[in-house]
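Kindly go through the entry underneath: sequence plus fold tokens. Please state briefly how this chain folds according to its tokens.
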Amino acid sequence: MEAYLIISKNTPSFYKKVEELVSSQNIQKEKFCKIIEREKEKQFIAIEEVKTIKKFLARKNTRGTKKIVLIPEARFLREDAQNTLLKTIEDLSQNSVIAFGVPNKEFLLQTVISRCAVVYANESVENTFQFQDLAKEALKIKGEGEILDFFYNNPILYEKRDNALDFINCIEYLIFTEKIESQKVASNICKYKELLVNSNVSLRLLLENIFLT
């Protein structure tokens, strides 16, 4: 049985760590790899998609190669979906690998964490959510003018890239754990997060757009 919980700040670092973990194993990625992702415009990964994992792993493999299931954005797994996965993790055969990617362990249930080997994409990955109070405040704001004033008055959020990323991760965490109804913000984070990680866009403008567009 091989189940990994990979702590990574972004999807590229998750995949890089997966490559390190499975490179020495007999895996044909093209035919025996299943990636579970959140559908566009959906706030969470559908439980129906999670249920397909068991069927995928149960499918006969006559070549003897390992099968791997990747969930790069496991922070979007709701509690019911995580509970559904528990039995699957416990019943993993020696020819199966499953890897979850999260920016912080707190996104997953302790029962899931305890069944996985926890590894870090790099030494500075673990996120302490230093802007949690500001994130809670931002989620309560409704008006466009108030949003603009909020970011004008809190330049520390876009002072550097790591601050902006911490703030966004905290927003996602609060939406997930506190069941905050914010479909627009969740969708915009999905849309803009890669820009934050991989481009030189204005951090302030990007954060404002997450709440305004």
Q: What stands out?
A: The beta strands are 2-7, 33-35, 67-71, 96-102, 117-120. The first helix runs from residue 11 to 22. Residues 123-128 have pLDDT under 50 and may be disordered. Residues 132-212 form one domain.
